[in-house]
## 1
Amino acid sequence: MPKLNILVGTMYGGALDVAEQVKPLFEQAGYAVTIHEQPSVDDIVGGDADLVLFCVSTTGSGDFPGSFVPFVRNLREKSPTLTSLRYGLIALGDSSYGDTFCGAGRALDELLVDHGATRLGERLEVDAMETFMADDAAVPWVEEWIVAQQLEVA
Ligand SMILES: Cc1cc2nc3c(=O)[nH]c(=O)nc-3n(C[C@H](O)[C@H](O)[C@H](O)COP(=O)(O)O)c2cc1C
């Protein structure tokens, strides 16, 4: 069974809720799913995951949530080649923060691509100004993503 790792960066739990709500969708699609609340670079390298989904909110002024900072620091230090990594990205933010809207998700996306990873489809940006519960936007998006990217395992 292929493996999907969901890497979470959250301050207030919204991104973790998203991870927990979409987990069964991937299980139905044939994946063994693990949610990582304290992610490490090992969760995305070395063939441990066939697919990775990031659920990351933004705090401060476009900053990564504290629980996600060690992952980003480690990624920058180790600078692994990620050419075999295929990933999806759900960014949580609030457009009232203006220029730093979804800043962490956007910075993460750039970092992953810089290391050779391939994003499948577009990044989802969930705006707290429009969507009170992020999973209301994330669940239908993941349902479509699985179909559009042909991720279902026969
Ligand atoms: C102190 C604070 C700073 C924030 N800074 C930003 C920001 O710079 N950009 C942004 O898009 N959202 C920002 N947000 C909004 C959060 O990203 C948004 O509410 C998100 O849904 C929180 O997700 P979480 O529950 O997973 O932490 C901020 C929220 C707080 C409380």
## 2
Amino acid sequence: MKSAIIYARYSSASQTEQSIEGQLHVCTQYAKANDLIVVDTYIDRATTGTNDNRAAFQQMLKDSGNAAWEVVLVYAIDRFGRNSVEVALNKQRLKTNGKVLISATQRTSDNLDGTKNLDGILLENVYIGIAEYYSAELSQKILRGLRESRRKGQFCGGKIPYGYYVTDKKVQVDEEKAEVVRFIFRQYAAGVYVPKIICKLNEKGLLHNGKPFLPNAIYGILRNERYLGIMRIRDEVYDNIYPQIVDADLYEKVKRKLIKNKIGSRSVKEVYLLRNKVKCGYCGNIISAECGTARNGETIRYYKCLGRKKHHNGCGKHPVRKEALEGLVLDSVIEAMQDEKTMNALIKGLMQMQDANNKEKTTLKLLLKEKKQTQTALDNIVKAIERGIMSDSTNRRLNELEQQARELDEKIAVERNKVAFLLTEDDMRRYYLTALRQEPQLLISTLVKEILLYDDKMVITYNTPLYEGSDDDRGFSFYEKTLFLPCTVPQSGETTLLPIQTVMRV
Ligand SMILES: [Zn+2]
């Protein structure tokens, strides 16, 4: 006679669900008919099938490590996990602990007497597949149901926007708050700034979810299409769930203003390619990126020495136009990269970096080595057993090694996935020659170390071995290049910068 426990779980995910009591009854009958003594029961009564934590199940798996019982009896195999992978893994854990999984209603891969059941193995997968199918079908049904409810104009959960409330699955307008929403829309449409709108709301003592209105809340309201009476869920549009609070003209006006303000404001960042890279050749101060407005209203962006800013008698370095300076530097970097030797040195450095980054691979090598050693030890034990050397300790060792081998297999699978896709030299070359040119910011931030800027020249220092004839293996060293600039013509403190000639001096 073998001892067994019964595991029962009720999940709403299955269409043909058997109650806990039903499962227990069938399992008990099976135990009686098959000479099993039921010593314990583990029951999960959770009602949701896909995200419950199944405390009793976890406890049962844990207990299987040192409990005396031998068999886990379930009503159906899908009790054992939420998908076939989970079922397989959990079954494997039981097996590791020397326990057998038996279903009272389905043929399983293991028989009670320890023999294998080949058609059971096949069937097991079919049963699990069917359970998965039902679970997926139920999700479909739920989605279909939700869609149907929405079509009927019913509220189906989620956050209710300010100005609405729900009764009997129907969204209703909270007239008092709706008036506040309209007020916000009208104010914004009239050109009142959001902080000012908030002041006005505060003066009226109005709250948003119990707290004073914040800018994000205001923008959230201004952008919420539900106030127009429209709700979008993925590709579906519903106009029958939310009653309209703001009329279409006002909504459109606000929408246009939001877009316009977004383009004109700081939210669209002007990229200064050389930010933090340029220093003044005269005073050593940082040359910072700034922007101003010309008399004709045009925005001018330029780089200006910080030493000039501070005092009247500060640095005399003239500011330079952003576009002109950046263009010069970018041309110089791209030109430097055209040189074959330079490119080779660069690729060499990058390959070295990749190798260093790819040290992860050594973990995999170590694991494979360990697996090999474990396998050898396993083979030796098996040979010993074949020769008749059989004791408690050889048995224990065999179990240990088998467990170890399984754990290693899992770790190896994980590492194999981790090993990054490696770039070849050709890949890198292509990348640098094409993609990086379209991403000047990346190009400059990786390759340019520093730029010393004078009024008549600049000295570019590179991060990489970008010099001709570089054969040494130092990897990353520095290289300088001086570009001579046209004489500056200061006009009301502003300088145009045009390249006349570029001279290279190493
Ligand atoms: Zn300066």
## 3
Amino acid sequence: MKKNVTDILDIHTHKLEADSLGKSIVNYPLLADSPLYMPFAGDVEVDRGYYYSVGIHPWELTEHNAGQLLDYLKQQLRKKQFVAVGEAGLDKLAVASMELQLTVFKAQVRLSEEYGLPLIIHCVKAVDELLAVKKEFRLQQAWIWHGFRGKTEQAVQLLKKGFYLSLGEYYSDETMRTVPDERLFLETDNSSLDIEDILCRAAKVRGVEVEVLRETIRRNIQNVFFRA
Ligand SMILES: [Zn+2]
């Protein structure tokens, strides 16, 4: 699905609602009963007009379902049109062991490369592990750390390693000012805020006009998710 996008602003949300139509990248639910995906019921078909990412979240992962989730993810990637793999990642607070999380995450890194899709990353207290994985691969695809709330020093470290950072409702203002234009994304994730509110606040913190920042974000979305 490579085309010109003008309307997408929100690169990560779990809310499939009218407001997301053509304006957000919606996290497609692999598990119908996942606690992460409240608005969905059953094996929903991809609705027309929405843009989706698909991946295995570390919170959903157990020893018993890992193989099944990976098979299902591969099926989805083969038959559906997605603009990203994820959210996927590593989370020290998740139930699944780090070993299992690493196996499943690396499988998703390979899928992101195979399908030529950027990777949307969830990372909690596992930055060293994440960076070690990144070193193992010769990556072509962008890695986007979503919902970044860490310290500015960590943002700087990640930017040096080539990451894109997506900021949502919570972040430090210093970090918001530190991310260069070409590495910044915005998102609502599970927030009740509208992406327009997040855009306005981000523009204020960065000291730029809202419409200037909107164009910056759109250009990044075009370059990363819809590369010609
Ligand atoms: Zn999310």
## 4
Amino acid sequence: MNFIPNGLGWIEAIAGCMFSGKSEELIRRLRRAQIAKKKVLIFKPEIDNRYDEAYVVSHSAQKIKAINIKDSSQIMNHLEDNTEVIGIDEAQFFDDGIIDIVQELADKNIRIIIAGLDQDYLGKPFGPMPQLLAIADDVMKTQAICMKCGNPATKTQRIVENDQQILVGANKLYEARCRNCFNGGEK
Ligand SMILES: [Zn+2]
């Protein structure tokens, strides 16, 4: 996305499978907003403490300071009068309340950039992401590379036995897979 609105509420969504560079793209956009001296707030769900509790971190180890919150309503507690840009990482882990909150923030002329997994390990839409993608003004779908065959990958394959929807981790638990090499829920 090259056009960046000025003084207009705007919702951007970055969605894709694991290892597709979502957090990296989120960090890139937020950094540019910071360089433009915008007032930026960044949130992530407390469930995701893979790397560092107070940062959004990409797999390529880029990071940006963030606020850990337990549920989406806490975004409003941190909001300041002069907040211009809000970043939200791992949005799939948030409650459905985030959908109305994002709309409300956009109505306050805030630019919101959301990153999250579009599908879970079964290939099913993940948490509030379908609704967030629907209401977004701009959507980017990121792709990874299939770790089996090298094609573009859009699915997250769980490579350990576990049937919980949320199992946080990266390298040893999941692989990016193309549609042919993906088999939801099985090894
Ligand atoms: Zn493949």
